[in-house]
């Protein structure tokens, strides 16, 4: 790690824990990371419950799950592991929880089936792996990593992706594994109301969508070697058409990582994020316009919001600055650095 | 169309017909487009046959197919039609030809199945549609457009995409429709040689791949109203794993269009193009660094080449400048403007 980079790490790197509001207002808190500090940040989706529907017990459960996810990443990073392993481990915990719209807790599509999307990217090598609309795979993020590491491909989808998961020895599960009462009831309400989808992208704004419509989980990390990585996983938009792929498995949309700029993971209505090529836009704003990670995330999110979409983002830059920002009422989120101080959040504090 | 835009159109806009070489050398020819000139450019893939395997009869057939594709787009544009309709029409002709790796002439995957990818993007609205690994749909580009216009989604894949195609009334075909002797023999050779795929992306360089490995078709256009559009369609990489999705249906990778910058369509080893987020990078280089379309295409392609991938690109910018560039031995290509002078090319002239 060069002197310059080290200095930047010490001088510039605030933890920017940006609390969103509809106007994307910010309220930054700063502290100094160590020079070779590692950091992992996670999100459990921007589609949080309304405050009046959040009990204390439920909030405690969410925070415990976020904490457990951070711990999984922390354990890897503190032992000198790579950022790519840390983000995978953190996402696996969120996929295995019924609380988030990914893995176990995934939303149903309009036919009552779970089709899962995920991707992972290594900022050191620009290697990437992604999976779309895969059924019956317990941990899509692990499948995405396997595609990255054990095939010549970046992205696989559908039945072929499941076949590959089987041949790679990944854990397969029956459809009932993904059945949760909350998601099932939510789908029934949506189908009754006829709000499973609008006819056009612009009609499917966040206003039409319940909280379960745009959950996603993700993790970004910087390891001790300065390498960045990002991972995103989702059950996708509730009531989606069979075969629909969102932004989560699209490199440059839901997930992007490059050591020269940032690692970022999005949550939101994926159709807008895809069209903005949102996370790649962040990286390019940093590379070509000299934006900070915070400025880049804000500018990219504004484009999604201007189109009518809701969006949340977590990002970490090469110096370890963390950005967590959302346009809705909250975002399940958290981060931890080398000091082991675990921070989790849901609403504006 | 504003005065400024009009002036830019007249002053700046050369036809940049860039002949590629391994070093991406350029040999530009310029002429002045009309102020409200329309233009459509197409490619039939960068994986062209070696010169000594190209007979006069075969070359004539390729040029005739390219001409027919351009004519389909031209007819729409000259009648005052939109760029989005023109690129779809041009790509349909290439999909229906057995000569190119898209639609009818698609490569087989390693199991002898055809799984097709396509996408389309409207630079005026940033609306986009994409389809991955769909089987049995005669014209994937039309399916991509249907997804854009008649669903709230951008991307669909696999069986769900086929179901939607059926419900939308698109023409479905049996597997034998896509069977061509040339592609079948090529797959057999590849399977015998064990070169159907390398273990890792970086080992799967263009050097390992025969000409049929990376064919793709695409079209970009600027209509009389200054609106840009891009479309890309492919059978994907020969010998690919079932379920593999390449760059063609990824918005920002194989296809991108925005009225403020350019419309671009890529051909090449998609795994590299995805990781570079190649066409979005071009757009951002123009928007944030002031690059011309030619400079932006060149810089983005260089990143793909530096990773070891082969790539070809066609692009048109808001003023009607056309860029056609490739890193391999040639690219099936062509363009036509309002004056009706049809230009087609395969190798360096």
Chain-wise SSE layout:
The structure is a homodimer of 349-residue chains.
Chain A: H1 3-12, E1 15-17, E2 39-43, H2 56-78, H3 83-96, E3 116-122, E4 127-134, H4 140-150, E5 155-157, H5 158-167, H6 181-193, E6 217-222, E7 228-234, E8 244-245, E9 255-257, E10 262-268, H7 270-276, H8 278-289, H9 293-307, E11 311-317, E12 322-326, E13 333-337, E14 343-345
Parallel strand pairs in A: 1-12, 4-5
Antiparallel strand pairs in A: 2-6, 2-13, 3-4, 3-7, 6-7, 9-10, 10-11, 11-12, 13-14
Helix pairs in contact in A: 2-3, 3-4, 8-9
Q: What is the structural class of chain A?
A: alpha+beta
Measured by DSSP, the beta-strand proportion of chain A falls in 15-25%
Oligomer: homodimer
Strand order across the largest sheet of chain A: 5-4-3-7-6-2-13-14
Number of strands of chain A: 14
The share of residues in helices of chain A is 25-40%
